[in-house]
Amino acid sequence: MSNKIGIGFSVPKMLPITGTWTLPFAAYLVLLSNRVTNLRLSNKKFLGDRSEPSSSPDEQTSPDALYLATRAHGNFIENVPLAFILAAIAELNGADRKWLNYAMAALLAMRIAHVELGLKGKDTLGPGRPIAFYGGQAWFAAVAAYGTYLVKGYWGY
């Protein structure tokens, strides 16, 4: 599990777990991006986050599809980069690879559930939203705490 660089030095693969999960997360990001693009093209709405002019909440009968697509995309972009940073820090400091794999799989499942079972649910209130929100908060806290635990010796504990 190493690569030769330069004049023949072997360098170990530093982040194999985090690297493994880049493809599934990137694939889902591409799907979310394409949903926004397709809605923009079909509605000829190239700027903004609504396909229809804004109306009062009382007048709306269903959520705006472009708004939901942009929020799904935005929420993914808001959460996943920090998650990858936390996972990479834990991995670089010796995190258990099996545990980290399970954690990344859980995060991907929660991010997908947020959109597919949450925002796309009836009145955008499907069960995926609270599962992803509270599960995501627990995920961030757990991975950050684990990363901190892994370096506790640095602080003399």
Describe the fold and architecture.
With 157 residues, this protein is mainly alpha-helical. 64% of the residues lie in helices and 5% in strands. The chain has a two-stranded antiparallel sheet. A hairpin with a 3-residue loop joins strand 1 and strand 2. Helix 3 packs parallel to helix 5 (128-150). The longest helix has 28 residues, at 65-92.
Notable characteristics:
157 residues, two-stranded antiparallel sheet, 5 helices, mainly alpha
Short description, anyone?
This protein is mainly alpha-helical and 157 residues long. 64% of the residues lie in helices and 5% in strands. The chain is elongated and about 60 Å long.
Write the layout of secondary structure elements.
Layout: E1 2-5, E2 9-12, H1 16-20, H2 22-43, H3 65-92, H4 97-119, H5 128-150
Antiparallel strand pairs: 1-2
The 3D shape can be described as: elongated
Radius of gyration: 20 Å
Strand order of the largest sheet: 1-2
Q: Which residue ranges are poorly predicted, with pLDDT under 50 across at least 5 consecutive positions? A: none
Figure out the total of helices: 5
How many strands in all?
2
Question: How would you classify the quaternary structure?
Answer: single chain
Helix content: 55-70%
Question: What are the secondary-structure elements, in order, as H or E?
Answer: EEHHHHH
For the largest beta-sheet, the strand count, sense and barrel status come to: 2 strands, antiparallel
Mean pLDDT: 89
Please report the distance between the alpha carbons of the first and last residues: 32 Å
